[in-house]
Amino acid sequence: MKARVHVMLKDGVLDPQGEAVRHALGGLGFGGVSGVRQGKVIELDLADDATEDTVKEMCEKLLANTVIETYQIEFV
């Protein structure tokens, strides 16, 4: 079984990488982009008996900094 964890900075948290991408897009002629938020995707290969609670625990303990980041779990 596979799970994908999507991690993003919470709204209101400064995203310097996203701002750099937004600025670079403008420099390349892509106007109209008023904001960019950059995150990460973590793909996990899990044992068939793994549960969503197990993946949540992984996120809370290691994969996401829950003070400044949110996460979503997707099983694929």
TrEMBL record:
Its EC number is 6.3.5.3. Belongs to the PurS family. GO terms for cellular component: cytoplasm. Transmembrane segments: none annotated. The keyword Metal-binding does not apply. One of its GO terms (biological process) is 'de novo' IMP biosynthetic process. Part of the phosphoribosylformylglycinamidine synthase complex involved in the purines biosynthetic pathway. Catalyzes the ATP-dependent conversion of formylglycinamide ribonucleotide (FGAR) and glutamine to yield formylglycinamidine ribonucleotide (FGAM) and glutamate. The FGAM synthase complex is composed of three subunits. PurQ produces an ammonia molecule by converting glutamine to glutamate. PurL transfers the ammonia molecule to FGAR to form FGAM in an ATP-dependent manner. The gene is purS. Coiled coil: none annotated. It catalyses: N(2)-formyl-N(1)-(5-phospho-beta-D-ribosyl)glycinamide + L-glutamine + ATP + H2O = 2-formamido-N(1)-(5-O-phospho-beta-D-ribosyl)acetamidine + L-glutamate + ADP + phosphate + H(+). InterPro entries: PurS, PurS-like_sf. It is found in: Cytoplasm. Pfam families: PurS. Pathway: Purine metabolism; IMP biosynthesis via de novo pathway; 5-amino-1-(5-phospho-D-ribosyl)imidazole from N(2)-formyl-N(1)-(5-phospho-D-ribosyl)glycinamide: step 1/2. It comes from the Bacteria. HAMAP family: PurS. Part of the FGAM synthase complex composed of 1 PurL, 1 PurQ and 2 PurS subunits. This is Phosphoribosylformylglycinamidine synthase subunit PurS. PANTHER family: PHOSPHORIBOSYLFORMYLGLYCINAMIDINE SYNTHASE SUBUNIT PURS. GO terms for molecular function: ATP binding; phosphoribosylformylglycinamidine synthase activity. Keywords: ATP-binding, Cytoplasm, Ligase, Nucleotide-binding, Purine biosynthesis. Its main location: cytoplasm.
